[in-house]
Amino acid sequence: MADTWVCLVTYNEAANLPLVLEAVRVALPEAGIIVVDDNSPDGTASLARERAARDPGIHVIVREGKLGYASAQRAAIDFAVAQGAARVVTMDADLSHDPAALTALVAALNDADMAIGSRYVPGGATVGWPVHRQLLSRLGNLAFRWIGGLPARDNTSGYRAYRTEAIERLDLASVPGRGYALLTQTLVRAQRLGLRIAEVPITFTERRHGHSKMSSAIIGEQLRLLGRLAWQRVRRG
Predict the structure, then answer these.
(1) 58-62: strand order across its sheet
(2) 27 phi, psi to nearest 5 deg
């Protein structure tokens, strides 16, 4: 089986998934790919299965309904680890995360336990976002870094690579968070465990097709987490 696995969680990504799968295969020809789809009504799962029928390195899990980003990520990572992966990558399936950056992200694990595809280190960028969304993201990441004490410049990026040993220490099943807060909660735990974290510059490009999954519930979950981290920091003095 492959040493490196790429995890894609999908919901209504029929217009993007075939392009993403092709680009991942170009960047990492020998990688395993796991697609976890929450029974998308647009036929994403059918497209994934069609591609998997032609490529034995692609595996597809279709769940009964929309169970959420965090649980889908856990399911994908658990599957990859069970296949004997030494390195696991998570990325969005809407082409906002450029698959061409996969090789650099995986290479960063030579000197780190976890690597983040970062928009906010030198060389990183965001393309296609309106000003208000760029401002929200930058302020949120600054808050997590300075108020919450998290180590990275881009704490909310879902484009990440992990050594399997780091995944086992993180114990993702017990990391709280139903949505994208899983990403920041994982960094909280990684910092406490003393894991080595690297950041690799990426260009994040707004999706070409479909709709963003960002919602008020996701923002609210992140704000509650930030509040808890701030309070914990105050209590520590």
Answers:
(1) 58-62, 32-37, 4-10, 87-91, 160-163, 114-118, 197-201
(2) -70, -40
Determine the longest span between alpha carbons in the chain, in angstroms: 58
Reference 157, options 209, 197, 113; nearest CA is: 197
Token pair in block for residue 213: 């999954």
- Please state the pTM of the whole predicted model: 0.88
Q: How many other CB atoms sit within 10 Å of the CB of residue 61?
A: 17
Q: What is the pLDDT of residues 121-152, one digit of tens each?
A: 999 999 988 888 888 888 888 887 887 778 89
Token pair in block for residue 44: 């994403």
- The Cα–Cα gap between 13 and 43 comes to 8
User: Considering just the CA atoms, what is the radius of gyration of the chain in Å?
Assistant: 17
| Residues 202, 160 contacting (CB under 8 angstroms) | no
Give the start-to-end residue ranges of the domains of the chain: 4-236
- The CATH number of 4-236 is 3.90.550.10
